Amino acid sequence: MSSPCVSVIMPVYNAQPYLCQALDSLKAQTFQDFELICVDDGSSDDSFEVLKRYRADEDFPAVRILTQRHLGPGCARNKGLDVATGTYVYFLDADDFIEPTLLEKAVGRAEQLDCDIVIWDAWFYNNRVQRDQHPAVGTLDFPAFADFPVHETLAFSAADNPDAVFTSFQNWPWNKLFRRSLLVENDIRFPALFRTEDLPFTCMALVKARRMSVIYERLSHYRMRTGSSSMDNKDPHALDFIEAFALLRDRLQEEGLYETYRVSHARWALGGAVYNLNSLTRVDSFARAFAELHDGAAERMGLLDVPLDAYTHPLDRRSLELIKANDAQGYLFFWMRNHGAFVDDDKELFDRVEADLEEARSEIDRLHGEVDRAHGAVVEAQGAREEVERQLDDLRRSAEYRYGTALLRIPRAIQRRLSS
């Protein structure tokens, strides 16, 4: 039996409400040469039963189900990697879903340009309102890396713009297709963390890849605001982000790559530190993480490895100053004061999106009017056609009567002559 082209690896932990949508989006793929490796990470809901139902579906590609105690998504993905046989690897989270053409387009691009990694854009799916709603202009800052139209036809590498690679392409594994040999030959694995476990894995893959390419389409739907995922509750693992960035820094140093990517790493690490601090919901979790950063974690993460002016965002720069000063109260006040700027930005974005939506609705109404008019024309034409067919039928019947009567006169005339 030949190996599949793609190994899809899905860590599953208490994802029963969303699992069918994820699996159905795989079943609907226009490219079906893949195996699915599901790793149940100690689920306590009915996720395992859902997986078994799909494994029994004869119309679904090969499904393997592995199990482990609850060790986190990183360990689950590693378990899947251990048995994967595909040329490429794709990681799909159990609460996300994808467009039907994702694998076809990603594999096609990888084959066309001989890429180790193919990256695409994504929607953020708001689970509370059940729709894709943000970010309205895409998730990735491709233009910051290079001239994006070029990337539609050419491959590139991280070394083409080392100061922007991490901030441009982020550390999500679920919007990237990886060549499996890249991961195996470079021993790229996920650390045993519950959060930010994808950072050392994805970022090392980015810098080790010979060739990469970008697809400027939103092919993934990243589910947010479920109220239950690890992304919705960071407090139980409030320090994982520190360990993740420290691990990446250590690995880059071991590989002799840190100086090349030092600026990009520092910028991404500081942005990650601010994001994680501001996402914590408990006072004790925030206080612990903030104190850890001041007491040495900022240095372990590489936040002090570049001058302050190397950080391009002024809010990040001020945040680092307050962390170094161990001023947690000042940090919270600073972000409380600046939160209004983000609210204003959100309102402006909402206004633009609302205006676009109204314009789209007007266009839809116009198209509906054209469809109605076209339908009326079709109905009118159908009526005219039926009238023409009726007239032809009448003419046909009249002609048959006349010609039939004329033909009958011939044998009657002959009969009269013979009888005379």
UniProtKB/TrEMBL annotation:
It holds the Pfam family Glycos_transf_2. PANTHER family: GLYCOSYLTRANSFERASE (PTHR22916), GLYCOSYLTRANSFERASE EPSH-RELATED (PTHR22916:SF51). One of its GO terms (molecular function) is glycosyltransferase activity. Gene3D superfamilies: Spore Coat Polysaccharide Biosynthesis Protein SpsA, Chain A (3.90.550.10). The keyword Repeat does not apply. Residues 7-134 form the Glycosyltransferase 2-like domain. Residues 343-398 form a coiled coil. The keyword Metal-binding does not apply. Keywords: Coiled coil, Glycosyltransferase, Transferase. Its EC number is 2.4.-.-. This is Glycosyltransferase. It is an enzyme of class 2 (transferase). CDD domains: Glyco_tranf_GTA_type.
